[in-house]
Design goal:
heterodimer; A: 2 domains; 3-stranded antiparallel beta sheet; two-stranded antiparallel ribbon; 5% strand; globular; B: mainly beta; Immunoglobulin-like; 22-stranded antiparallel beta barrel; 5-stranded mixed beta sheet; 12 helices; 48% strand
């Protein structure tokens, strides 16, 4: 009674036993944006990037509505869990399979060399984001579920960083135009298979990671800053890494996760900007436009009503822009403003031109690279960087101000406006040089709020004032890490021995000194 | 050579009335017939054989066939008969006395008096060892029926349902979970109670062994009604009308309204914006009857506005009408029936309708060939199944949350579009809402907490299911003692589900539309060769056969959001569409056999075996044998000289192995699939098993779990059958349980499947039947069933002591299976303790939560039972069923949130002018613990309740309740008109009754909600979170035959 017909029933007509790994790489590229290549891609942005990081780092503020534990330092289980669950289960899962199957013993052993090394760069990008959130994380044993490792051990953050830097070094070096394309260009919707750009991305990321550990491992930081400078980093905004997004096919699928979270037709996360950021952009003289940061009316779309029908501005006058203070609820705002506050009529919102479903998702930009180079020179980390700290700082400011056109062609800043800004706030004169670099990196990372938060934790810039809302769980200090997801605490036996403990928002990660 | 003769006669009851449908069987054979509506029968039998007359509710009798060709006989009524013939596995009729295992039969009449739409729920409290959980999801929802405890840690634990010998698909179409959702119903709801002749519960592995890999959870065998030989056409009409009313268990505070704390003081809204921000919170000051602005800008008195539940919930109605025709002669008979159920629930705009059509016929061709064919067709339509658990679309939650100073009617909005912002709403209000006229009229700044009227009137959710269950059996009696039979059975259904989230909904302003179809079928082909002969005192009854099962499943869903043309919800009008497709096929080939050896009618030895070959398993390991052996000894017949008060006595013992093959097709190998939704024209691929978050790692060596069971039992009756006891002890071991073990997400997946689980169920079942009083005019019968099951998780994955199951929306608890503990432990964050055991607090008095999850309870009752009392006095019947569950717990997220929102009475403590809230314990300073005692200020008390009722450091034991209950489950009072009154009418029978279901909770231990308010029928039982409220129903039942 054991018939062939019975066996044939178990062949899934919808599945393959081997797949063109380039198709998985495309999934990875989509996944690095919002960790939702095949599902609800606003999940992590909404809960963590916005709900936690954007408020904690005081670029946005929230008096009520949506998900906002970062504004008042409270607990939200999904905020904690989202990056962990979605990063391992989205791009890292697919990257691990690409590396496994194109590696020794895999069905595509030795094939797809360039794609494989591009995947290693995206792996480093993703793991760095994870470890920056939590501290110690499963790394060396991670994503080996198909090999029987169901509860991977935790690796300490220094070990993770050492390997990520090594990976970037090897992968960037191994990328070569002399390798066969093997379908990579057709699958790579970020760089269309441009190997030179991939190499620059690898070295730029190496620079970021090296600088991030510069307070705790100066020697290693110097080694890799030097390697990055030698290897060649981003040289213009044309090198920026963007993940293109689409209008659909439907809600949350293949759309920009950040846009979806703010969309008034969706979750309706309020899009009010923080007073800290608006005040910074308005410059020293709040009563004048001349000293404003040209990005004021790029990042802010003005004060206005935003409904499913569209954005109806009430004021786009730069002088009238106003940010919402962090750590306030409606009653506190009423008291602060001396009367009933209608939020929509009072506070500036993110520019809806940057919140369209099909707007691209920023992964890493040239401006940041210039600031890191400026900082490396200032702090004498590494060797071989051409130019001066000032030249890099100025280039970074210019690049940061002029990088918004992929969102909308109208979001331009003229060279003259950049020059005027740099004249009004000369490098190292207005404030100490490192503080100015830190502040510029902070503005540069609007939308990449998790990055802005990591930079602040490392540099202490910009100088932020913590809030102290009743019932907060950090004792009135800005949180410095995420808690692990509850099912990791409850389920992974390696948690107690290897995780960063105590598992609190106030426990600093290794590089945070 | 035996002399064959035809015997006929009439069967009557003690009062002389004829009994239709009596089983007349030639003892020791499968040959039999039933009496017609005049109580007449006619059977061919060998001279010297014994005829057994049995009928549910009567003591069976045996008569040896001598020379008389007419045998008239009268049967005595009995609560449970002794020598009944029951339908066992594969539809085989057996004398109950020969069975080596416990089996319980429930007559169909028990399910038609006071009704449940779902057959599973109708079994509550009726059968010892059958634990029925009524799910808090409304009348159209699913049921959870567990026989002798849970056998699988994560797999399906519900029994196999067999309809007229055909296994039925009892798939679930969705349950509410952590993120809410609705109970989309199960397969069982298709069955019409009016068509049920009897339900036989094959409880143990032994009883169900012939079903092999599908028998682990027991089998529920449903036999539908059939026609009988009679003169003319018999007509039976039944009507049932019941009202369903809210059983309001809420006990909330009525002294404080909408508001929040400002500068440490409880404050009423001073502005519309504040009223909108605080629209969900009852943390204002004490009512003072002052005029206060509302979320909608209107001024209202700040005082309790009365009961919102009675304003919102309606009276539900269920109206069932049934007509059945039957007729037949010597050679052929038929029954045809049509039943229509129309119902509405207590939630506005929500209901469930069903049409059932059934046709059965059996025919005899010559002396040796018989044909039995049945067709059951059903059409079900459910409208707006309520969302439970988490909020999106949950009107029940919105209602609980409404502050007492609002009438829920204040949320009604546009009278022509309930729940929508009415025309003429001023610009300032629209600006505060951030919405326009016609969109959802939200009472608070919380997009995920819906306006209840918007949910009930603007959301659309319907599902329709068309199903056909059909079977045909052809039997050829080769000789008197040898037969061959073939049977084919098909269960096929198509389900279509549709949903609309309307434009303007808070959390989805653009609106969304989905349409899905399921096409499922299972085909069984079965053949048997049977042998049945007596050699002196030895009887042999044996058969061998095979079965071929094929299952096909296809699912398609189109989802889209945003509409091109406003308020036109056609699927072709959506802006973006995504598509899901799922297909699978699977099959099982089986060989099976059974043999029974009997000695002199009092000693029986049974053995069965079934071998299954599975398509879903790796060919190397896809064959599994399921054996069983058993013995039954009727000692009251074997030994002479036993005391005369012992009417009947039997002991039995058995051993069996059965399985549960809950392995999905294609799930044993890792494969890749294309994403159905490419990005910007770029195709994308990933693992088939986990395109996105989570997913399961397949295991090529997976096999079905095995349940090995030993069962011992004794049945005896004493004092002329006035008192009967049926006692069973069983010991079950589940091995190789498939664990979809939740693993670290860092593995890349959410779970993996392994054959490592071991579980033990040991328990006892007791059935006591008694007739405490009996006279010519009054009879009082009592039936008590009790069962206790001890469950223990023996092992999990190597190195793992705990397996995480479900998490509730409050995110502070998990149901876990823990080695050494019973199945389904509730664990939660408890208050942290200092090394010397003192509770640890923050300086402001909030409790500090423990780092890990501690065991706090178990969601499954240890003991279940039911007590039926039935009185009959001169045609008046009174019967009531009280059932109970004991020893389970429930973690009430409803109560937790009611406290967080300031709605519960618990949240009063610590407010200004109320009983003070004082906490005593320690505070931690570094590694030091210092004594701490504090009477909290009202603001601190607010933070305290927000903390324990929220997600942060919640203290779960505070919201864990004993889920034990005693309920008056059913009561019927009926009157059967005497025959003499009907003589001049075409009526043959007429009865009318008052029926009530879930009438009262006689005992409970939980505030505000029903102890049975678990919202899902999954394996994780014991979480309550804004489920369908408790209801009671009552009405009338009319039956007439012509």
């Amino acid at each position: 009674c054991d018939t062939d017909e019975l066996h044939e029933l178990n062949i899934n007509p919808q599945a393959l036993n081997q797949v063109n790994l380039n198709l998985m790489f495309t999934t990875v590229e989509l996944g690095i944006a919002s960790n939702g290549s095949t599902g609800d891609n606003r999940y992590i942005d909404w809960r963590t990037n916005i709900g936690w990081c954007s408020y904690a780092i005081q670029q946005l503020a929230n008096a009520g509505g949506g998900i906002a534990p970062g504004d008042k330092y409270t607990v939200n289980a999904e905020t904690n869990a989202a990056p962990f669950e979605f990063t391992y289960n989205d791009q890292l899962k697919n990257i691990a399979e690409i590396l496994k199957q194109s590696g020794p013993g895999g069905f595509a052993e030795g094939k797809y060399v360039n794609m494989r090394n591009a995947a290693r760069i995206l792996k480093a990008f993703s793991f760095a984001r994870l470890t920056d959130f939590y501290g110690n994380i499963p790394y060396s044993e991670a994503n080996k579920g198909t090999e029987g490792i169901f509860f991977p051990k935790y690796d300490t953050q220094d070990v993770v960083y050492a390997d990520l830097l090594k990976e970037l070094d090897e992968a960037s070096a191994a990328l070569s135009t002399s390798n066969a394309d093997e379908g990579f260009a057709a699958a790579d919707f970020i760089y269309k298979g441009d190997i030179a750009k991939w190499k620059k991305f690898g070295y730029s990321l190496m620079l970021r990671l090296a600088m991030r550990i510069s307070n705790v491992d100066a020697a290693k930081a110097a080694t890799y800053v030097t390697k990055a400078a030698a290897g060649g980093v981003f040289a213009s905004n044309a090198d920026n890494v963007w993940v293109a997004m689409a209008d659909g096919p439907s809600e949350w699928v293949n759309q920009n996760g950040i846009s979806r979270a703010f969309d008034p037709g969706d979750g309706g996360q309020p899009s009010y900007m923080s007073a800290t950021l608006i005040d910074f952009l308005k410059g020293t003289n709040k009563g004048a436009v001349a000293d404003d940061d040209p990005r004021l009316m790029i990042l802010s779309g003005g004060i206005g009503e935003w409904t499913a029908a569209g954005f109806t501005p009430i004021s786009v006058d730069p002088l009238k822009q106003k940010g919402m203070p962090n750590g306030y609820d409606q009653a506190m705002l009423d008291k602060l403003e001396g009367g009933a506050v209608n939020l929509a009529k009072t506070y500036s919102r993110i520019n809806v031109k940057m919140l369209q479903d099909s707007d691209p998702y920023m992964i890493m930009n040239y401006g940041e690279v210039e600031f890191l180079l400026a900082e490396a020179i200032e702090r004498k980390i590494g060797t071989g960087i051409a130019g001066t700290a000032k030249s890099h700082y100025d280039a970074g400011v210019k690049a940061s101000m002029q990088m918004y056109t992929p969102y909308d062609a109208s979001l331009t800043v003229s060279d003259a406006a950049v020059a005027a800004y740099l004249t009004a706030y000369p490098y190292g004169t207005t404030k100490p040089a490192l503080e100015m670099i830190g502040e510029q990196m902070w503005v540069n990372k609007f939308f990449n709020w998790w990055e802005a938060w990591s930079d602040w934790r490392r540099t202490g810039f910009p100088k932020l004032t913590a809030t102290n809302y009743p019932g907060n769980v950090t004792n009135g200090t800005i949180p410095v890490r995420l808690r692990y997801p509850t099912n990791e605490v409850a389920g992974n036996p390696n948690y107690q021995t290897g995780a960063t403990l105590p598992d609190d928002f106030t426990t600093k990660v290794w590089w945070d000194k | 050579y035996a002399q064959e003769m035809t015997v006929s006669g009439k069967v009557s009851d003690a009062a002389g009335g004829e009994i239709a449908g009596v089983n007349v069987v030639v003892k020791g054979t499968t040959r039999g017939t039933t009496t017609n509506d005049k109580g007449e029968y006619n059977i061919t039998v060998d001279k010297g054989k014994t005829l057994t007359f049995s009928y549910i509710g009567y003591v069976s009798r045996e008569v040896v066939v001598a020379n008389a060709t007419t045998i008239n006989i009268s049967l005595t009524a009995e609560a449970t008969a002794l020598n009944e013939v029951v339908v066992t596995a594969l539809g085989i009729s057996r004398e109950k006395r020969s069975l080596a295992y416990s089996i319980t039969e429930v007559a169909g009449a028990n399910m038609t008096a006071a009704r449940e739409a779902n057959l599973g729920n109708a079994l509550a409290g009726r059968v010892a060892g059958v634990n029925v959980s009524k799910i808090a999801s409304g009348p159209a929802g699913s049921s959870r029926v567990i026989i002798r405890g849970n056998k699988s840690l994560q797999g399906n634990n519900q029994p196999l349902y067999v309809i007229d010998g055909i296994p039925m698909d009892n798939n679930n179409f969705g349950q509410a979970g952590l993120w809410g959702g609705s109970d989309e119903g199960d397969g069982l709801s298709s069955i019409n109670p009016d068509d049920i002749e009897s339900v036989v519960v094959l409880k143990g592995a032994n009883a169900a062994a012939l079903y092999g890999s599908r028998a682990a959870n027991g089998v529920i065998n449903v036999t539908t009604k059939r026609g009988t030989k009679r003169k003319g056409i018999g007509i039976e009409i039944g009507s049932n009308y019941v009202f369903e009313k809210l059983n309001d268990l809420s006990d909330l505070q009525h002294s404080y309204g909408s508001g929040s704390y400002v500068n440490g003081v409880a404050s009423k809204p001073a502005t519309q914006q504040q009223a909108y921000e605080w629209g969900d919170d009852s943390w204002g000051p004490k009512y003072d009857n002052s005029q206060v602005i509302g979320f909608d800008g209107k001024m209202r008195p700040y005082s309790y506005q009365g009961d919102n539940f009675s304003r919102f919930y309606k009276t539900g109605h269920a109206f069932t009408n049934n007509i059945a025709l039957s007729g037949g002669n010597e050679n052929q008979n038929f029954r045809a029936s049509v039943t229509n159920l129309k119902s509405s629930t207590i939630i506005p705009n929500s209901g469930y309708d069903r049409i059932n059509i059934s046709l059965s016929t059996n025919a005899k061709f010559g002396k040796r060939i018989t044909l039995d064919a049945k067709v059951l067709y059903s059409e079900e339509k459910a409208k707006n199944r309520p969302n439970v658990s988490d909020s999106p679309g949950n009107a029940i939650q919105a209602l609980w949350r409404t502050p007492g100073n609002y009438s829920v009617l204040d949320y009604y909005g546009d009278p022509n579009k309930p729940g929508a912002i009415p025309a003429g709403t001023d610009a300032n209000s629209l600006s505060i809402f951030g919405k326009t006229v016609g969109e959802e009229f939200q009472q608070a700044n919380n997009n995920w907490g819906q306006n209840p009227y918007w949910v009930t009137h603007q959301f659309i959710k319907t599902d329709k299911k068309n199903r056909i269950i059909t079977s045909g059996a052809l039997k050829y009696q080769i000789t008197d003692w040898l037969y061959i039979q073939g049977r084919a059975g098909l269960d096929k259904y198509q389900r279509r589900g549709e949903a609309l989230t309307p434009e303007g909904t808070g959390y989805q302003r653009g609106g969304a539309r989905s349409m899905g179809t399921w096409d499922v079928q299972e085909l069984n082909l079965e053949y048997t060769l049977g042998f049945n002969k007596e050699f002196g005192k030895i009887g042999i009854n044996a058969f061998a056969g095979g079965n071929r099962m094929r299952r096909k499943y296809e699912y398609q869903n189109i989802y889209g959001n945003g509409f091109n043309v406003q308020f036109f919800p056609a699927i072709n009008n959506v802006k973006g569409k995504s598509w899901d497709y799922n297909f699978s096929e699977s099959g099982i080939n089986s060989l099976l056999g059974s043999a029974e050896l009997s000695w002199d009618g009092y000693l029986f030895l049974n053995a069965t075996a079934r071998n299954d070959w599975f398509s879903v398993l790796n060919p190397a390991t896809n064959s599994i044998l399921y054996p069983s052996v058993g013995a039954s000894f009727v000692f009251s017949d074997a030994f002479k000289g036993l005391p005369s008060w012992l009417s009947y006595g039997k002991v039995r013992a058995s051993w069996a192995q059965v399985g549960n093959a809950t392995i999905d097709p294609y799930s044993t190998n890792l494969t890749y699939s294309l994403n159905g939704n490419p990005h910007l024209g770029y195709p994308m691929a990933s693992f088939s098993q986990a395109m996105g978050n989570g997913g399961n790692i397949p295991n090529p060596n997976l096999k079905p779990l095995t349940v090995t069971e030993k069962e011992f039992g004794i049945d005896f009756r004493v004092f002329n059958n006035k008192l009967g006891v049926d006692f069973t002890y069983y010991d079950q071991q589940t091995t190789d349980d498939i664990l979809n073990a939740t693993i670290s997400r860092a593995s890349g997946f959410g779970s993996t499947s392994v054959n490592l689980g071991k579980l033990q169920n040991r328990g006892i079942e007791l059935l006591i039947t008694a007739t405490p009083f009996k006279s010519n005019s009054l009879t009082w019968d009592v039936t008590l069933n009790l069962a206790k099951n001890n469950n223990k998780v023996k092992s999990l994955i190597e190195g793992t002591k705990e397996l995480v199951m479900e998490e509730p929306r409050t995110r502070n608890a998990f149901i876990k299976n823990i080695v050494g503990q019973p199945f389904g432990m509730i664990t939660g964050r408890v208050q942290k303790l200092s090394p010397d055991g003192q509770p640890v607090f923050y300086n402001d008095g909030r409790p500090v939560g423990s780092a890990g999850y501690e065991v706090i309870g178990n969601g499954i009752a240890k003991m279940t039972g039911g007590l039926t009392n039935a009185f009959n006095y001169k045609g008046i019947d009174l019967s009531f069923l009280v059932d109970f569950k004991w020893g389970g717990d429930i973690l009430s997220g409803t109560n937790m949130r009611l406290t967080q929102w300031g709605v519960s009475k618990q949240s009063l403590q610590g407010r200004e002018g109320e009983a003070p809230l004082t906490v005593t314990g320690v505070v931690q300073e570094g590694t030091e613990y210092k004594p701490f005692s504090k009477t909290l200020t009202p603001r601190e008390a607010f933070d305290y309740w927000n903390s324990v009722g929220g997600e942060a450091d919640a203290v779960t034991p505070m919201f864990l309740y004993d889920a034990s209950f005693i309920k008056l489950r059913q009561m019927t009072i009926g009157y059967t008109f005497p025959k003499r009154l009907l003589e001049k009418t075409p009526l043959q029978n007429l009865s009318i009754s008052f029926v009530g279901r879930n009438l009262a909770i006689l005992f409970k231990n939980i505030d505000n909600v029903d102890p049975e308010s678990t919202y899902s029928n999954g394996n994780s039982q014991g979480f309550d979170y804004f489920g369908f409220p408790s209801t009671r129903s009552y009405g009338f039942n009319l039956r007439a035959t012509f």
